[in-house]
Design a protein that fits this description.
The chain has about 475 residues and is of the alpha/beta class. The chain is about 55% helix and about 10% strand. α4 links the parallel β4 and β5. α8 crosses α12. The chain is globular, with a radius of gyration of 25 Å. The termini are far apart. The structure holds NADPH dihydro-nicotinamide-adenine-dinucleotide phosphate and ribulose-5-phosphate. Pathway: Carbohydrate degradation; pentose phosphate pathway; D-ribulose 5-phosphate from D-glucose 6-phosphate (oxidative stage): step 3/3. Belongs to the 6-phosphogluconate dehydrogenase family. GO terms for molecular function: phosphogluconate dehydrogenase (decarboxylating) activity.
């Protein structure tokens, strides 16, 4: 008798794939897993004896074990490996089958893969998953996009396995084409900036306020009970209590100060620049990680360049630093969501910003209490260009902006780099400026390149023959 076939396939049984398989199984879905690494296959076998999970180290047997049309999810590293897996699958799967890339793939690659596979009638879905290991296991935030019919095949399962906020699943159809991977990319861009600003705040608490790890833990724990309540603040509080297994020190003091990155933050900045939607807090966070990785150069520069402090005494308290970080968070969400609003028309995704804010409230790395307010802002005004000018958020920001300014001034006086907090302040200062000195840029462009300019008092474009003695 033919054994019953699995409803879903999962290729890649590492951190995310293995946990997502277990999550799907818990919710009653049958899943076959495959990995080229037999250790991962054996690990999955050892973690479960549920009959609705299969574990394969042979791709042909894996494909043969699936119900048709086949729905095969990928959780392998982004880039060439995704293409390699597609090429392996293509000859052994059929028209109407669905490949769902759940990794952090670049959105333009996803669009190319959609077009490429559609020639053979194979549907390709780009789907972002956030929540790390625990999220994948017990409820992530899930951002699917692409072909609606293919999405409909997945929807009941995604709704079941996603995190829930007040009973609502943290997943929804994002939009056409590569919309799912685009939204996940921007999620990660926001993640980079929030993490960077938390790190900057740690630097201020440690080097200006003179707090030790225990006191810093207490500060973040308190902040997590208030308006900054979020996953990243919660884990930050926990990090400052972790002892090192290999020495007498606290672990945080033994971790090298060189941050790594896999590219999603830089991709966010790159597309934001391309489509003309400023994300300076994210750009600064990407650059800060890169600068941190230049450890040897930094150590050499530290012995050559003077630390320029102006001798000021500290004039900042913990409440102001909390307000500064809160302002930075709101301004970063504003940039990321404005980018999504602009990308929605540029890339024809048809995104719903309220839905995105809603599914980021739970399961994902950037989940935060303030997303509830952000969601409500879109509920009141669905076409809101920027959350900073919404009724509630503008009131909040106006209250905390002086603290952001004061925190940065103190950091500057103490020679402490706060690039993302500062970029956030500059963003809002520029965004709320009815006048900016861009008239001078236009004059310069016209001066050296006859690029023309517009006037404040007349319609049209103008060029001036500028008076100069420069040859
Ligand atoms: N870790 C996280 O917190 C998150 C990760 N992601 C994304 O999810 C994806 C997977 O990440 P993660 O689970 O952490 O990665 P892991 O490296 O833990 O797992 C990937 C698995 O895929 C296997 N693999 C590699 N090539 C192939 C292949 N050709 N065929 C079959 N299996 C293969 C790897 O085997 P081997 O070890 O032998 O190479 C490994 O077991 C990435 O795109 C990542 O960016 C998204 C959200 C969160
Ligand atoms: O997608 C994720 C969470 O949602 C990844 O865990 C995270 O973005 C890792 O990225 P990087 O290695 O660049 O810091």
């Amino acid at each position: 008798m033919q054994k019953s076939l699995y409803q879903y396939g999962m290729i890649g049984l590492g951190t995310m794939g293995c946990n997502l398989v277990l999550n799907m199984s818990d919710h009653g879905f049958s899943v076959a897993g495959y990995d080229k690494n037999t250790e991962q296959v054996n690990r999955l076998k050892s973690l479960t004896n549920n009959s609705n999970i299969g574990a394969f180290d042979n791709i042909n047997q894996f494909v043969a074990s699936l119900n048709t049309p086949r729905v095969i999810m990928l959780l392998v590293p982004a880039g060439k490996i995704v293409d390699a897996v597609i090429e392996t699958l293509k000859p052994i799967i059929s028209k109407d089958d669905v490949i769902v890339d759940c990794g952090n793939s670049y959105f333009a690659d996803t669009q190319n893969r959609i077009d490429y596979l559609l020639k053979d009638g194979i549907h390709f879905v780009g789907l972002g998953v956030s929540g790390g290991e625990t999220g994948a296991r017990f409820g992530p935030s899930i951002m699917p996009g692409g072909d609606v019919k293919a999405y409909e095949l997945l929807a009941p399962m995604l709704n079941a396995i996603a995190a829930k906020v007040n009973g609502t699943p943290c997943t929804a159809y994002m939009g056409k084409g590569a919309a799912g991977h685009y939204v996940k990319m921007v999620h990660n861009g926001i993640e980079y900036a929030l993490m960077q600003m938390i790190a900057e705040t740690y630097h201020v608490l440690k080097n200006i306020c003179g707090l030790n790890n225990k006191a810093i833990h207490e500060v973040f724990s308190e902040w997590n009970k208030g308006k900054l309540q979020s996953f990243l603040i919660e884990i930050t509080a926990a990090i400052f209590l972790q002892e090192d297994d290999l020495s007498e020190a606290m672990l945080i003091d033994k971790i090298a100060d060189t941050a790594h990155q896999k590219g999603t933050g830089a991709w966010t900045s790159k597309d934001a620049m391309t489509i003309g939607s400023p994300t300076p807090s994210i750009d600064a966070a990407v650059a800060a990680r890169t600068l941190s990785s230049m450890k040897n150069e930094r150590v050499k520069a530290a012995s050559i360049l003077a630390t320029t402090t102006n001798g000021s005494t500290a004039n900042i308290n913990i409440q102001q630093i909390e307000d500064a970080l809160y302002a930075g968070f709101l301004i970063t969400y504003a940039q990321g969501l404005a980018l999504l609003q602009n990308a929605s028309s540029t890339h024809a995704y048809d995104l719903n910003l309220k839905t995105i804010a809603s599914i980021w409230r739970g399961g994902c790395i950037i989940r935060a209490a303030m997303l509830e307010t952000i969601m409500q802002a879109y509920e009141q005004e669905p076409t809101l260009q920027n959350i900073l000018v919404s009724n509630h958020i503008s009131t909040e920001i106006n209250k905390v902006l002086p603290s952001l300014r004061d925190t940065i001034v103190n950091a500057i006086n103490f020679s402490i780099p706060t690039p993302s907090l500062t970029a956030s302040l500059h963003y809002i200062d520029a965004y709320k400026s009815a006048w900016l000195p861009a008239n001078l840029i236009q004059a310069q462009r016209d001066f050296f390149g006859a690029h023309t300019y517009e006037r404040t008092d007349k319609e049209g474009t103008f060029h001036t023959k500028w008076h100069t003695n420069i040859q």
